[in-house]
Amino acid sequence: MPKLVKFSRLLSVLPLLFLAGCNMVVMAPSGDIAVQQRDLIVISTVLMLLIIIPVIFLTLLFAWRYRRSNTAATYAPEWHHSTRLEIVIWAAPLAIIIALGAVTWISTHKLDPYRPLDRLDAERAIPADTKPLTVEVVALDWKWLFFYPELGIATVNELAAPVDTPINFKITASSVMNSFYIPALAGQIYAMPGMETKLHAVINREGEYEGFSANYSGAGFSHMRFKFHGLNREGFDAWMAKVKQQGTMLNRDAYLKLEKPSEKEPVRYYAGADADLYDAILNMCATPGKMCMNEMMHIDMMGGGGKESAENREKLQYDHRHADEGVVAPAATVPATGAPARSEPASNTDGNTDGSSMQHDMPGMDMQHDGHSMPGMSNGADPAPAQLNNNN
């Protein structure tokens, strides 16, 4: 008997062993946005358990009570309907669905990442004289670059912010899509090249927290991590002074070297950064000689540049910017690098080996757009279609 008691105790502790390696930061966050998201998970789970638990219990009860050996159970072969039972079966799930819908509707608007914060936590509103901290985030292959435009500094793979200060994140990427995620602070937000997403958040407790990319982006994805430091005001001022003291200058040349794919990049500090560098990265024109996307969009908005815009084709090619330097993503194919797709032979039947015949052989593959080539498209000298030229 004592052995049986010990064995039963071991079984009761066994489930906890499976959770020993789990990081429960999502359920125990340190930022108000993440706390509200945690509460939303808990509320949704509890509401669903109001149906799941009774259903499981009644299933087991019915199986036991109406087992074949229980001759005392009620036997009613002609029973087919009960209004009371129908009301319970349909009313309970309907009420829970309404409650879940209301919670989802409110939370979707209240926790919109683009929505500025209106409180520090559940008990404190944002003081009127509080100035938010702006951080510009760039996802690189495979590291994170952070600009502090108001402070004039930048860092790689390290982020810091003062406690109880709203943070306004502006997020983009230089290459492929990534996902900016600090579980203790707020939910994940995608980082996409040529686009800017936003996130408003606040950290309420001092500490060192993990940040990473939550979207697979290539060979170095597993090591695309950084540390986020929640500091008091004195600690943040000391961190900022250290960055300025130990950092170098981040100009265009330094950025283009940093932008090249690399893994396990160490923390870097920059005491200063070009004022327009983030905007150039966002508009995909950090490389000299490239046309900025906002300039291209302005030309399109004005009706296109006509035949004269043919000279802009080369300025609008972005995806093969490292091809001439021998830095090519493993899966890169036509049209970014001119390399044939892996499922295709190295040469085409017409003798063309640069991959450009794909554009001509596939019907409907028109690479033109208002006299401009789309980013990453072939750089052939084909003129813009006549119907798109506003001066024909």
Please, could you describe this protein's structure?
By secondary structure, the chain is α+β, with helices and mostly antiparallel strands. It has helices spanning 2-18, 32-65, 83-110, 233-246, 252-259, 277-282, 293-301, 357-361; strands at 119-121, 124-125, 133-140, 143-148, 153-156, 158-162, 167-173, 178-182, 186-191, 197-201, 207-213, 225-231, 248-250, 268-273, 368-369, 372-373. Strands 10-7-3-4-5-14-13 form a seven-stranded mixed sheet. Strands 6-12-11-8-9 form a five-stranded mixed sheet. A two-stranded antiparallel ribbon has the order 1-2. α5 links the parallel β13 (248-250) and β14. α2 (32-65) runs antiparallel to α3. The protein is elongated, with a radius of gyration of 29 Å. The termini are far apart. Residues 331-337 and 341-392 have low confidence and may be disordered.
